[in-house]
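> call design_seq(struct)
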């Protein structure tokens, strides 16, 4: 009787399939006695770091240090981004023709706005394609 009242499997939707497959032999060992959420136990993933990416250390919890991206235009002191410089602009346009976001390129906010304007001007006068053909 105490096994039936302690189990929270019928109340939560995520833990209901566990209760059906595990049977009524008592509380499951993998469900975690403290959390009660029915989530699988947390631990190191097979690939190393979070998301399966390799980590820097041998224990799976490495010290992965990502260097902060610096704005290319600020470091080279480029104030005006010319729309005619197609080689420069192509570095900030993806293969499919999309403008690459700041978080990937590391460009600061003001230069990203100027870069976007320059890319759009270059597209309008056919220096850059709007999109590639599939």
């Amino acid at each position: 009787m105490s096994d039936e009242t302690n189990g929270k499997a019928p109340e939560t939707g995520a833990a209901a399939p566990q209760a059906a497959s595990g049977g009524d032999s008592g509380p499951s060992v993998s469900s975690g006695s403290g959390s009660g959420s029915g989530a699988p136990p947390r631990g190191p993933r097979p690939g190393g770091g979070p998301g399966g990416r390799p980590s820097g250390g041998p224990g799976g919890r490495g010290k992965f240090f990502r260097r902060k991206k610096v704005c290319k235009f600020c470091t080279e002191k480029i104030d005006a981004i010319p729309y005619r410089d197609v080689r420069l602009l192509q570095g900030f346009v993806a293969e499919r023709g999309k403008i690459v976001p700041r978080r990937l390129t590391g460009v600061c906010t003001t230069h990203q706005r100027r870069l976007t304007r320059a890319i759009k001007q270059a597209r309008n006068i056919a220096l850059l394609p709007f999109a590639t053909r599939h």
